[in-house]
From TrEMBL:
Residues 1-23 form the signal peptide. This is Nuclear envelope integral membrane protein 1. It is found in: Nucleus inner membrane. The keyword Magnesium does not apply. Keywords: Membrane, Nucleus, Signal, Transmembrane, Transmembrane helix. GO terms for cellular component: nuclear inner membrane. It holds the Pfam family NEMP.
């Protein structure tokens, strides 16, 4: 009898629990992704409240720029809105609203919004009270461009804070902004020094609901910005001493090409300078033996005359010829070797 009694009590408890769950005064709709729910005009016989809940997501780097919103599509603003962390909290707020089904506007009631941004990582529930046809939409933006722009702007402010602090225009603008609320110049000075960095930090921090990742970005950017330059130079110097770069030597062709390229560039720069107003052309022409040649060079002609080109080619040809061994020397050497061989042969015959 004792065992049957326990089973009977358990059965009664389960039955009561089921009846209690069925008798809840609200219906919960759990939304896990992008969802759209259309609602017609509520009937007077409806006794339950529709509550829409977002479950939340786990914290990961892929959600750093993600945004989740509750959007309400309705023709007018004649609706009341209730938001909480659980269905029970939402229903409690709904039941305590004395103007829930009244057309009288409560001046102390929070103004409803047709688009509500919710926390990405915590459950959020919402219910509305209206007599109009409406649509509930859960909007999930995987990559919110506004959050990306906000983080990028914060990084720019952090890395350009030193330049902004030294800008007199920015200093006076900060003075005007802070001077409205304070009359201490010391406070103006320090705020103008810290304002760009603080604003950048706040922009990065609020650019994502993943606050741990935003804090990591802030710490990394501050360390990269204010890391001692002397220590960086020491590390780079040690790395160069430990792993020196390999020096690449030029080949003969590369040496010739580089010389020709640099010579051509230098001549073009010289020609541009001689054609510019900064050059005293008449004074230079008075000092030259051949002023016509200088004018021809400025006009774009070659800086070498035909005779100089021929002399250079003859010199280059003679230099190249002197490096090659002459056939006469080789034949003479062969002749000397042959004579020695003949002498040796005669000696052997003797």
């Amino acid at each position: 009898m004792g065992g049957h009694g326990r089973y009977l009590l358990l059965l009664l408890f389960i039955t009561a629990l089921i009846k209690f769950s069925d008798s809840l005064p609200y219906d919960v709709h759990w939304l896990g992704g992008p969802t759209t729910i259309e609602r017609d005009v509520p009937t007077p016989n409806k006794q339950t409240v529709d509550i829409y809940c977002y479950r939340g997501t786990s914290k990961n780097l892929f959600a750093i720029w993600q945004t989740v919103k509750f959007n309400i599509k309705i023709k007018n603003n004649e609706f009341s809105q209730y938001i909480g962390e659980s269905p029970a909290d939402v229903y409690k707020e709904f039941s305590e609203d004395s103007y829930g089904w009244s057309s009288v506007v409560n001046p102390f009631q929070k103004k409803p919004q047709k688009s509500v941004s919710i926390n990405l990582f915590t459950p959020t529930c919402m219910a509305i009270n209206t007599r109009e046809r409406h649509t509930i939409e859960l909007q999930v933006l995987r990559v919110d461009l506004w959050r990306i722009m906000l983080m990028a702007a914060g990084l720019v402010l952090i890395f350009s804070s030193r330049a902004l602090c030294g800008n007199p225009v920015f200093f006076y603008l900060c003075g005007i902004f802070v001077g409205v609320f304070a009359s201490f110049m010391v406070l103006v000075y320090y705020i103008s020094k810290l304002l760009p960095r603080c604003v950048g930090v706040l922009m990065i921090f609020f650019s994502s609901d993943y606050q741990e990742a935003s804090a990591a970005v802030i710490i990394a950017s501050l360390v990269a910005k204010y890391f001692p330059q002397s220590l960086i130079n020491r590390i780079c110097g040690y790395w160069r001493r430990k792993f020196p770069p390999k020096q690449k030597l030029l080949t003969s062709e590369e040496y010739y090409e580089q010389g020709a390229r640099e010579t051509k560039m230098a001549l073009e720069n010289l020609r541009k300078y001689c054609s510019s107003p900064d050059c005293a052309q008449w004074k230079i022409m008075l000092k030259l033996n051949d002023s016509k040649r200088f004018a021809s060079f400025v006009e774009g002609n070659s800086h070498l005359s035909d005779d100089e080109v021929l002399d250079y080619e003859a010199y280059a040809f003679s230099l190249e010829r002197s490096r090659k061994p002459t056939p006469m020397a080789n034949s003479t050497r062969n002749m000397e070797i042959s004579d020695d061989d003949d002498d040796d042969t005669d000696y052997d015959d003797d």
